[in-house]
Amino acid sequence: MRNTLSSALCGGLIAASAVCTAQEYPVRTIRMIVPFAPGGSTDVFARMVGQQIGEKLGQQVMIDNRAGAGGNIGAALAAKASPDGYTVFFAGAPFVINPALYGAKLPYSPTQDFSPISLMAKAPQVLTVHPSVPAQT
Known about the structure:
Layout (H helix, E strand, L loop, with lengths): L1 H19 L9 E5 L6 H17 L3 E5 L6 H9 L6 E3 L3 H4 L1 H5 L35
Parallel strand pairs: 1-2, 1-3
Helix pairs in contact: 1-2
């Protein structure tokens, strides 16, 4: 699965770079912004994928952890990055949960500031409450 995901991401990166520039790709380090702290599941996954991409493309992949504000710090940084195919953002909560939590106060637009490349992973989520709470569904 890891090889399939890294191949999909490599293809997306190469396609994105073809639109941006006529030069060879990649000619410099690829930056992967992870909006969570080092050592977490998103970081570990990004490092595994980054290593595979680096080996396939023959270029260094740098993981840039920008934790804080529920992922908004990393997302805002990625939104302001040059659209040259050398910055990749690992989205998740910043795109799914944060628009509902922060609304118009977000410093980025998930739909206007980003272009999706590939689905990287799925993770089940569970919401639980204390048995005394009357919620049933």
